[in-house]
């Protein structure tokens, strides 16, 4: 059986967020509290999300993870290495910088609701030109966030506050393509840090802000297709590509 392409998006995003990309057939994952799904009954953890994915996907997957999705992809590869053939990790990180601040932000979200968070998120996630270039995609994200539960958003931020895979990244012996959004100002330097630690990684920079898959769907599709060709052709393991 060949590997299935598995798409893990950023927080608040549903399966429709990939519709502007040009990809081979893929499984678009929907996290608890996202899309039509209820919140995780026993609380959302990074390990729990990864384990649920592992329990559902076929033998092997090529994982594409953006932002929160890139975090989940790391837990999947660490906890269930046999299930991951390769990864594309975009605009993501190996560790949250300030867990205490994230936990207090999460508590504040639960009381304030989604309203105050939508415009700032659009500002971080897209380049200014996005409303002209990809108006439907920006509108989709805005509409999704307006309907989204602040508790579900807070669940993700609280779970991410515990995130730190730095000491374990050297165990991931799969080919990884890392993607930097050239205009991504969230966690600057985080992709370089992943590149330094992941033994079989290569790195691309493409125009785009934090949610590079929605901000630059054409450019990100091209990277994924290049990645799949690289892996299908036996991505040279043990060799660090720059
Ligand atoms: O919203 C951000 O700036 C960072 C982020 C947290 C989870 C996610 O997917 O992006």
SSE blueprint and pairings:
Elements: E1 4-8, E2 26-28, H1 46-56, E3 61-66, H2 68-79, E4 84-90, H3 99-112, H4 115-125, H5 130-133, H6 135-147, H7 150-160, E5 176-181, H8 190-197, E6 201-206, H9 212-215, H10 217-232
Parallel strand pairs: 1-2, 1-3, 3-4, 4-5, 5-6
Helix pairs in contact: 1-2, 3-7, 4-6
Ligand LWBT4IAB is lined by residues 10-11, 67-68, 121, 124, 186, 210.
Mean pLDDT across the residues is: 96
Class from secondary-structure proportions: alpha/beta
Our measurement of the CA-to-CA distance between the termini, rounded to an integer number of angstroms, reads 31 Å
How many distinct folded domains? Answer: 1
What is the helix content? 40-55%
Q: How is the biggest beta sheet arranged?
A: 6 strands, parallel
Domain AB hydrolase-1: 5-221
Keywords: Hydrolase
Pfam families: Abhydrolase_6 (PF12697)
GO molecular function, one term: 3-oxoadipate enol-lactonase activity
Keywords:
242 residues, alpha/beta, Rossmann fold, 6-stranded parallel beta sheet, 10 helices, 43% helix, 14% strand, globular, binds the ligand O=C(O)CC1=CCC(=O)O1
Descriptive notes:
This protein is α/β, with parallel strands linked by helices and 242 residues long. The chain has a single domain, classed as Alpha/Beta hydrolase fold, catalytic domain (Rossmann fold), CATH 3.40.50. Helices cover 43% and strands 14% of the residues. It has a six-stranded parallel sheet with strand order 2-1-3-4-5-6, sandwiched between helices. The longest helix is centred in the last third of the chain and has 16 residues, at 217-232. The chain binds the ligand O=C(O)CC1=CCC(=O)O1.
């Amino acid at each position: 059986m060949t590997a299935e392409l598995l798409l893990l998006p950023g927080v608040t995003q549903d399966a429709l967020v990939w519709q502007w990309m040009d990809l081979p057939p893929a499984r678009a994952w929907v996290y608890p509290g996202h899309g039509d799904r209820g919140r995780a009954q026993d609380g959302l953890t990074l390990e729990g999300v990864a384990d649920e994915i592992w329990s559902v996907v076929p033998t092997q997957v090529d994982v594409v993870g953006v932002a929160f999705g890139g975090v989940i992809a790391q837990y999947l590869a660490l906890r269930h290495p046999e299930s991951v053939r390769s990864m594309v990790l975009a605009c993501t990180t190996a560790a949250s910088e300030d867990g205490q601040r994230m936990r207090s932000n999460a508590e504040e979200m639960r009381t304030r609701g989604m309203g105050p968070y939508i415009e700032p998120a659009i500002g971080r996630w897209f380049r200014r030109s996005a409303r002209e270039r990809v108006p439907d995609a920006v509108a989709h994200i805005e509409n999704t966030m307006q309907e989204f539960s602040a508790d579900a958003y807070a669940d993700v931020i609280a779970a991410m506050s515990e995130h730190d895979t730095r000491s374990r990244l050297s165990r991931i012996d799969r080919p990884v393509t890392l993607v930097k959004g050239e205009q991504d100002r969230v966690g600057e330097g985080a992709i370089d840090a992943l590149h330094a630690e992941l033994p079989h990684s290569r790195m691309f920079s493409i125009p785009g802000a934090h949610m590079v898959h929605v901000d630059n769907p054409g450019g990100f599709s091209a990277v994924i297709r290049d990645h799949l060709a690289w892996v299908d052709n036996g991505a040279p393991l043990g060799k660090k590509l720059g």
